[in-house]
Design brief:
alpha/beta; 5-stranded parallel β-sheet; 214 residues; 10 helices
Length: 214
């Protein structure tokens, strides 16, 4: 997999996106582990030291056989702290990562990365979702969890901004992890369909069919 760089000044936004990606990557694997203690994930939190020694640990970790996941994972919540020496040491592994491995580098901006790091990664500039947008549909979603299929379909039919509602569903069920892990994974797949211009109403109706009941 192509290594990913997630750019946002908000640590919360980066953390949400990291968890979304890992939810899909770890789908079907043992769910008894948390993301930060999973044996196949080497996770560096904000303010971790990221020098040449840590670069060596990253390379060693990625070449070990996975324990329960389909591949090894490395996450750096703030890769802007990588020293120049560490960035250079990681160039080869970023260019040719082992099969099925996943490398995620979060950062407030891209200015601290050397150009050869950026050229080897898929760079995503994340949009920070406001508190207002996150809470706008909360009551509606909670009511839909208690509703039958006909009521859910009626709600979708009358909905004005269906794309915004899909994002609200993602935000809401992300907060419910791990109790709704399977449905969250379905939501992430639905987000991909939406980005591929699949009819958004059809996507939402499918989600209403499989959304859990409270």
């Amino acid at each position: 997999m192509v290594p990913k760089i997630l750019i946002s000044p908000s640590l919360e936004t980066r953390a949400v996106e990291i968890e979304k990606i890992l939810t899909v990557h770890l789908k079907g694997a043992d769910s008894n582990f948390s993301i930060k203690t999973h044996p196949d994930i080497l996770y560096f939190e904000v303010e971790s030291k990221l020098g040449i020694e840590q670069a060596r640990k990253i390379k060693e970790h990625l070449f070990f056989k996975p324990y329960v996941a389909k591949g090894k994972v490395v996450v750096l919540e703030d890769a802007s702290l990588l020293t120049l020496e560490a960035q250079n040491a990681l160039l080869k592994i970023l260019e040719e990562p082992p099969l099925n491995t996943l490398i995620i580098l979060g950062a407030p901006n891209d200015s601290t990365f050397i150009p050869t790091i950026l050229s080897r990664c898929e760079v995503a500039y994340l949009v920070t979702t406001s508190d207002v947008e996150r809470s706008k549909y909360t009551k509606d979603i909670e009511q839909l969890l208690k509703s039958d299929i006909a009521e859910r379909f009626e709600y979708i039919e009358k909905l004005k901004d269906k794309g915004e509602f899909l994002n609200a569903l993602l935000e809401y069920f992300h907060q419910q992890l791990p109790s709704h892990k399977n449905f969250t994974a379905e939501l992430l797949e639905a987000e991909k369909w939406a980005n591929q211009n699949v009819n958004i109403r059809a996507i939402l109706e499918y989600l209403m069919l499989i959304m859990p009941n409270e």
